[in-house]
Amino acid sequence: AAVSTQSAGSSGINAEYGRHSKQLILILQVLKQSCRELLLLVVMWAMGVVTFGSIMYYIEEDQPGSEFNSILKACWWAVVTMSTVGYGDLYPTSVPGKLVGSVVVFLSMVFMALPMTIIVSKFSRAYEEMKEPNQ
User: Fold this and answer.
1) Rounded Cα distance, 30 and 126, in Å
2) Residues of the chain by 3-state class (helix, strand, coil), percent to 5
3) Which DSSP letter does residue 132 get?
4) What is the pLDDT of residues 60-88, one digit of tens each?
5) Residues 128 and 30: beta-carbon distance below 8 Å
6) In three state form, how does the secondary structure of 77-124 look?
7) DSSP codes of every residue in 7-65
8) What pTM, to 2 d.p., does this model score?
C-alpha cells in the first residue's frame, strides 16, 4: 500500500523543511566563508597541543607518580585540557606543572575565542542579509 505524499497538511511540513534547509544552507555558507579562520583555529590549536604537551612532559617526567611517560601522552593531556573536557585521567603533580596547566586552560580559551568572534560576526551579517529579502 503506497502512502500518498500529498495531504492537506503537507504544504505546511514542506514549508517547515524549506525554512530549516535555508538556515542549514546559511550555516554551510558561513562555514565556507570562514575557512581561513577555521584553519587558523586548527593550526593554533595543534601548535598549542604540541608545545604545551612537550613542556608538560619535560616538567613532569621525573616527578614520582607522574603519568607523563611520553610526549604523546602529554600531548593527549594538552588536547583534553585545551578542549576543556578535563577527563582527569592525566594531571600534573608538581607545582610548575600545575602552573603550566593553568596557563594552558587560559590560553586555550583565548585561542578559541579569537577566531570564533570573526565567525560569529560573519554569521550575523549573513543572517541579516538573508532576512532582508523576506521583509
Assistant:
1) 7
2) 75, 0, 25
3) G
4) 999 988 899 999 999 999 999 998 888 88
5) no
6) HHHHHHCCCCCCCCCCCCHHHHHHHHHHHHHHHHHHHHHHHHHHHHHH
7) -TTHHHHHHHHHHHHHHHHHHHHHHHHTHHHHHHHHHHHHHHHHHHHHHHHHHHTTSTT
8) 0.70
